[in-house]
Design goal:
Blueprint (H helix, E strand, L loop, with lengths): L1 H19 L8 E13 L4 E10 L2 E6 L4 E7 L4 E4 L1 E3 L7 H9 L2 E11 L2 H8 L6 E7 H6 L6 H12 L5 H8 L9 H16 L5 E3 L9 H14 L3 E3 L6 H14 L3 E3 L2 H5 L3 H13 L4 E5 L4 E5 L9 H5 L6 E3 L8 H10 L2 E5 L3 H9 L4 E2 L13 H16 L5 H8 L1 H7 L20 E4 L20 E6 L2 E5 L2 E2 L16
Parallel strand pairs: 1-4, 1-5, 6-7, 7-8, 8-9, 9-10, 10-11, 11-12, 12-16
Antiparallel strand pairs: 1-2, 2-3, 5-17, 13-15, 14-15, 17-18, 18-19, 19-20
Helix pairs in contact: 9-11, 15-16
Length: about 500
Amino acid sequence: MKILLKSIVFLSVVFTYFLNNINAQTTIIYDIVLSGGRVIDPETKLDAIRNVGIIQHQIAAITTEPLKGKEIINVSGLVVSPGFIDMHVHGRSNKEQEFQLHDGLTTTLELEWGIEFLKHWYASRESKALINYGASVCWPFERYRAMRKYNDKVQQFYQSSLNSESSLENLFNTIGASYTDSLSQEETNKMLSNIHESLTEGGIGIGLPIGYLPKNNPGEILRVYQLAAEKKALIFSHVREASVMGIQEALADAMLTGASLHIVHINSMALSKVQLALNMIDMANKKGFDISTEMYPYTAASTLLQSAIFNEGWQEKLGMKYEDLQWVATGERLTKETFEVYRKSGGAVIMHMMKPEWIKIGLANPMTMIASDGMPYAPMAHPRTAGTFSRILGKYVREEKVIDLITAIGKMSYLPAKRLESIAPSMHHKGRLQIGADADISIFNPNTITDKASFETGLAFSEGMEYVLVNGKIVLKNGKTLSNTFPGQPIYGKFKK
């Protein structure tokens, strides 16, 4: 059925284009032709030299035959791939999007935390985004605005948000006082109503970062899962704590209610028990439940030092010492004294807490998707902010051969698109390189692509990504960002009104 629909869309686009062609030529003149590249489509397993013709925002031809175009780009020796899709980013501006663009991304989504005032945020990005964008409903914010005692502060936060760029740290600091509050029955009902309202504003499911509200009542969480199950809205969860027990709680809530669940960054949630965690998810899926997960290819995590992650006992829970923490503002490693000072002021840290073999176990599993958990911009921000997808292709495909190229591309494009189709209908047309699909395309040199950001030197553009097209428009050309080009479109959830 999907193939039929794609074919109908393709024929409609081509027919309209043909009728509007000034000379009514029998040979179609494509807007853009990608000539002679190694075309890879992870859904159909196509891996062959082909020419790709693009009309407006869609792929209109994939063939061995020569194609005529208004612009012909010779991509011989390069891989032509579906644009990469990142389900887990925290940077909300074009500053982060430019790093993501050089990493091959055509769609970035904030699904773990979600975003406050969704309608306003989507409107603020219109015609300004380099790549496609979207977000889930932010459960911590919706419970915050359900509490009467914060009504005035919600209004103040909204007014300030109209005059400033939305950021995770502003959200985090604004609503932090509510993290240990329990909701009354009335407030719980209001929270659920707020979630429903924000879903109608375009929210892609529900962001449930319970790990940052670890004392939250399990009954409240179960109600959110029940709502998700009733509405068939996907939940994206940072589980209660970095342990198998936290994962078991999330799985239990999903299995009891029938809700669809996506567990974020399984590598930093399960740590040394990553294989066990993946086994549990696989067992749940084999019993008919709908569970998925993701990971990033680095041995360090990153979050805000003022968060509940660093409440008393963090060293034992995470198996870390003070010197395993790196202060993003300066790049320095922390001591007990600087930890206490910086925790009061607040800011991001990098957490060196994982082993390389845990990353390889996660990558080798066929169900894991790749998502960066990219942080808001700072010169010394976690390198995953800029290099996640190129690192997969350079280090884990070319150098270490943990997975092959087509598998890697699938984890970065098709699998995320497939996962999101039920909640975000436009994803049906992304993550594939097929006739009728959106022309979100990443073109890279498989022999040179590599991440250049590091823990020691900070953020840098990845190398080897030569072209990126978003909705049929070239945004990255010969490895350079084109100026004043903003073809990114919103990705909405299915409840959008």
